[in-house]
């Protein structure tokens, strides 16, 4: 998969797993994405795909790099529906 396609699939997975926040934006925790079996099978490098999506202003989250365990509760917010 190329990066643009992976980011598109990531957006679909955030919609599938996430919930609407008070601002009407869809959000999901990193841990939910990371531990989801479907996401594990789709993404070879979930963290890299998230970073690419953040650079393209498609998602936002605190920090630069998310690591399993320590960042499981970090919210990933979808900026573009």
TrEMBL record:
InterPro entries: Costars (IPR044302), Costars_dom (IPR027817). GO terms for biological process: regulation of actin filament-based process. Residues 1-79 form the Costars domain. It holds the Pfam family Costars. Belongs to the costars family. This is Costars family protein ABRACL.
